[in-house]
Every structure is written in C-alpha cells, then in structure tokens.
Amino acid sequence: IAELPQPTLDSQAFWDGCQRQQLLLQHCGSCRHVFYYARRLCPACGSSELSWQASSGRGTVYSASQVQVAFQGPHWQSQLPYTVVLVDLEEGPRMLSRWAGGPEHRPQMGQRVRVRFVQVQQEQWLPFFEPDEGQRA
C-alpha cells in the first residue's frame, strides 16, 4: 500500500484498534446510533457523548468494484488490480474497505464476510474483508 492513513484526533482510537487487530466503531451514548467513520459528533443527533466499542467484524457485501487504474498516482501501480468493497456491518454502518478474498473468490452482493487485518508498510494493520465461510446470508 503506497500511502498509509494519517490518524487524526478523532480517528486515533480506530487506528489503535487496527494495530490490535480489533475493528472499533463509535457509539452514541445519547441516541445509541452506531456509525463509521470517526467523527466528533453523532451524525444522528449531534451529541458529543461518544464511545468506541468492538465490532463483530462481520457483515454483508453491499457492492464491489475492481480498480484497474492508479488514480492516486504511479506509486499505486504495484497494487493493481485490487477490489474495493462496501460492507454493511452487523452493527449497522456501511464501511468502505479492500477485498482480501483473493482473485479466485470475487465478492458477490449479499455475500457474508468478515474482517481480516492485513499488515502493510511500517507494520500498520488495515481492515480488509474476506468471505465468511461459516456463515450464510
């Protein structure tokens, strides 16, 4: 992976969880909304009463697309082709990520998946998704 994420004050807990191979989601203490990506205020009610909780790491493929062009510059050329997936997590949020199921297992809409942390440059762990063989949709 050419460029690693740059944690912010709001997202640091998420990236720390990734380093422990744990997918964390924000929860609102006021309205109980669960959401992804990290924010300072709940997108449902505007509360700042937020906490981080572990996700099951399981979900369903909403959509997938194979990337054939290095839109972010030539340093991404070595990554091509790769597949991005939108996953509806069991807890409710939809998460954009990369596919780790390999080219022989192309993601299908409605397919059950689970998170798999992949170690990349500088020992950073990133959440990718792969088929959840033990689960049916």
Uncertain stretches: none
Order of helices and strands: HEEEEEEEE
Instruction: Note the main sheet.
Output: 5 strands, mixed, barrel
Separation of the first and last Cα atoms: 31 Å
Percentage of residues assigned to helices: under 10%
Q: Let me know the average pLDDT.
A: 91
For the biggest β-sheet, the strand order reads 4-5-6-8-7
Q: Supply the number of helical segments.
A: 1
Overall shape: globular
Beta-strand content? 35-45%
Radius of gyration: 15 Å
Derived from helix and strand composition plus strand pairing, the structural class reads mainly beta
Strand segment count: 8
Give structural notes.
Helices cover 6% and strands 39% of the residues. The chain is mainly beta and 137 residues long. The chain is globular and about 45 Å long. The two termini are 31 Å apart. The model has no long low-confidence stretch (mean pLDDT 91).
